């Protein structure tokens, strides 16, 4: 199975009710919002979806809901990762992935493996994976950086299985080495919204975005313009989005994104502990940026 990851993927938030349950009607509204906004695919149960606080049953139900309520027929990527290699493999092989196009799998966190450990982990995962895999490097959350050398070794060793990397190291030099030496058909995706335009300008293929939950039309216009070579329009939109994107992450993710979505009346501003809703100060700053640019 092949998947085209060029463009904008949205790291979907998981809406909750005031009682703490998954809010499926709000999830339907959110999917409609991003679909009409022009996103190219959705990523479910990524970090932004708070999967660490979802039960196994809730994860199953969220994915099945997204598959069933997908009016644009967007490709769906599901996050399946962890720091127990055997458990990641078991989950991949037992989870209902019908209607899903690819798996996003994060580098193991907390136990901080070496590069040799990362290679061994992902070799085992890629050999067992029932779908193409997007490698996910996010050292700010996991405590370990997957180097360009490690990413490239896996990409070349598993063509058609390791299909992309979501590079959220914030290191454009590292991204450049991946771009220079990647095999044909391997996508490099920004995992940092405010570096997405720079990544595309270097030759990258797009982004898996948090901001696209909230501002899909503007964010997609920016990335699609850049991919088409219209850097002037893309740069203008990037500067408009820059401050509000920083604000979305000021108190953690998806704290800012959920606050902004609530301001836009798309979902309620509910999170699960240990995350708490954004401060009034942050909400006011986000609202001011939305009003300033008409987002």
In short:
This protein is of the alpha/beta class.
Question: Can you give keywords for this protein?
Answer:
12 helices, 13% strand, eight-stranded parallel beta barrel, globular, alpha/beta, 295 residues
Radius of gyration: 18 Å
Number of strand segments: 8
Whole-number average pLDDT?
A: 97
Contiguous low-pLDDT stretches (5 residues minimum) are: none
Structure notes:
It contains twelve helices and eight strands. Helix 6 (148-157) runs parallel beside helix 7 (172-181). With 295 residues, the protein is α/β, with parallel strands linked by helices.
Please describe the topology of this protein:
Layout: E1 7-11, H1 24-36, E2 41-44, H2 56-68, E3 76-79, H3 85-94, E4 102-106, H4 115-128, E5 133-137, H5 139-142, H6 148-157, E6 162-167, H7 172-181, E7 187-190, H8 196-201, E8 206-209, H9 216-227, H10 231-248, H11 255-263, H12 280-293
Parallel strand pairs: 1-2, 1-8, 2-3, 3-4, 4-5, 5-6, 6-7, 7-8
